[in-house]
Structures are given as C-alpha cells and as structure tokens.
C-alpha cells in the first residue's frame, strides 16, 4: 500500500514539475512569476475554485516571505504546495465527464446548432460565476474556437473530459 501511495505522489510531483516548466520565468531559472501560478496549477489538469487558488497563493506567499520576496516562486515551493494540494483535495478536483460538459454547453445552444459563438461564451465566462481573467480566456479560446469563431462544443467537451490527466 505504501508503494502505491509513493508511486501516486511521485506521479503528482512529476506532473506539477512539468506544469511549472511551461511557465518558467526564464528557461532554466526554476522560477515562475507569482501571477502565472493559477494558470500553472490549471496546467496540472485540474480546475480549482477561486477559494482553492487563493489558498495555494497564500501558502506560496507565506513561503516566499521567508525568502527574498521577488514576485517569483521557486520550483521547490511550487512543487511542495501544489503537490500537497492535489493529493489532499483530490476528491474535490475530479473533472466533469463528457456528458455533463455536453449538457452544460447545450444549455447555451437552445437552437441545437452544435456550436456556441465564441463571443457569446466569452461574455458569459467574463460576467458570471468564477470570472476568468483575460489571459485565461484568451488561452481557452485559442484551443476551443474554430476558424469561423465558433466553439463546436461536442469536440471541445470531448477534449476537456478526456485529456488523459488523472490525479
């Protein structure tokens, strides 16, 4: 049993390190800008709430305060905080399945066209619930929107639900 847990912990730590490297301040610096932490956490394959992200940011800020406060987060602190968060909060971080996502997207497509205009979704996501930042919105749209400015939600729901990531 201990071996299974250590394997899981090592897989989580490896995924956290991979996400960290994507947002590294300067290649090889082992530092990430504090403002990139939320996106780096999401790159681990989870979608934490604002409350959960604030908890992570608070823990990183406290650890950063002990060192030289540069506005950057080191790999060791990021790995420690985010790995522990992913392991401890696993039950609250499960992704929605394809059918749940599909029902959600269909709620915004009353005509049943099979797509949502990108601008419509952008307005919804920037004004309701947990508001996405402009940077997060642009990154999502880069992946979701086709050449005609539409989000074909069956394909996008499939991509979101089955990207191969597991905690």
UniProtKB/TrEMBL annotation:
Matching InterPro entries: CALM/Myosin/TropC-like, EF-hand-dom_pair, EF_hand_dom
Domain EF-hand intervals: 96-131
Alphabetized Gene3D superfamilies for the sequence: EF-hand (1.10.238.10)
MF GO annotations: calcium ion binding
Superkingdom of source: Eukaryota
GO CC annotation: myosin II complex
Name of this protein: EF-hand domain-containing protein
Lineage summary: Eukaryota, Viridiplantae, Chlorophyta, core chlorophytes, Chlorophyceae
């Amino acid at each position: 049993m201990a071996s299974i847990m250590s394997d899981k912990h090592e897989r989580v730590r490896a995924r956290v390190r991979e996400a960290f490297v994507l947002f590294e301040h300067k290649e090889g610096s082992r530092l990430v800008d504090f403002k990139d932490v939320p996106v780096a956490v999401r790159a681990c394959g989870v979608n934490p709430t604002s409350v959960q992200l604030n908890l992570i940011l608070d823990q990183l800020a406290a650890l950063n305060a002990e060192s030289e406060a540069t506005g950057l987060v080191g790999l060791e602190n990021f790995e420690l905080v985010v790995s522990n968060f992913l392991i401890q909060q696993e039950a609250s971080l499960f992704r929605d399945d394809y059918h749940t996502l599909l029902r959600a997207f269909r709620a915004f497509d009353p005509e049943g066209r099979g797509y949502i205009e990108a601008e419509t979704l952008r307005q919804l996501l920037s004004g309701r619930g947990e508001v996405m930042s402009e940077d997060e919105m642009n990154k999502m749209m880069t992946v979701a929107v086709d050449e005609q400015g539409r989000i074909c939600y069956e394909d996008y729901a499939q991509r979101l639900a089955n990207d191969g990531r597991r905690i």
